[in-house]
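Bumping with the actual sequence this time:
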Amino acid sequence: MRANTQDFRQLFLHDVPMMDTRAPVEFSKGAFPRALNLPLMSDIERQKVGTCYKQYGQQAAIELGHRLVSGVSKDERMQQWLAFAQANPEGYLYCFRGGLRSQTVQQWLRDAGVNYPRVIGGYKAMRTFLLETTESAVRECQFTVVGGLTGTGKTEVIAALGNSLDLEGHAHHRGSSFGKHATPQPAQIDFENSLAIDVLKKRAAGVQHFVLEDEGRIVGSCSLPLSLHTAMKDYPLVWLEDSLANRIERILKDYVVDMAAEFVALHGDPELAFNAFRERLSDSLQRIVKRLGGERFQRFNTIMQQALDEQGQSGVVDTHRGWISGLLTEYYDPMYAYQREAKSARVVFAGEQAEVIDYLRSNTAE
């Protein structure tokens, strides 16, 4: 029989499958990438047991829990746990603190002839471990930040490096007002956990100098860890450059061509997908109407709606270049130019994509 474990590092380094026996509402607020929610109790059952615990104490709550999870409901859940244990013989189970719920599931499995180990300390201990993983990296490692005007391909640079942390990838957002994907962002806790596991694995592989994209405090709806964001303000900055024509083409691909394809993959029906894509693109421009001002918004929106009409009728996306060009030259570039000037003392290198990648590989590889 495999023993219960507190070796959180090995669990996350090796993507060990884990059975999360917490209630669905707890799981939805935050979980781990390789965890499957197979709860001991439903949300309503958990609420009833919690109320009983407050009013009558632990023993009464335990007895109520056994009455609620019995008969057919217990049999159905047992089948799910047994199937998970059979499919994942190397896995573990856990609850919030490694207490009664995981111990109960473990005992019931044992009664059925299956010895399945649990994580001592449960979700809370693993979550604390991951938070400290990120904090220790901020304290102990070196970082370099990649900045540049909108559309220069900073994400492409991040993807080309083995020692990078893709903050936008973990947040499932491209970082601008137009950065939403067709599918939702992760919960804040899921974002933090995913980032920490990435840090853990790269440090285990020997990385001690990380490369990040220059980001604000919030990427879509996901907030960067405060210590990381605070430290980013002082990290060395590499500035990525590219022509306006290349930047327009990159944004056209990312925010029009690829985004439309995401909605098709999500919805299947082409008409439904295009309508959802059109609404998303229009809403993205609407989000910055106050910063654009009425005149510019109306001008860009007119071009965008004409481009969407043409795209919907023929699939041609050429007209989108009009509002993209205007948005870059009249809105994003002046804003980034101001930021570039404010950060000029931190800039250690500037160049186009190939040059920047070569520089980072030569100067940040440990």
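The tokens above came from a reply further down the thread. The longest helix spans residues 244-267.
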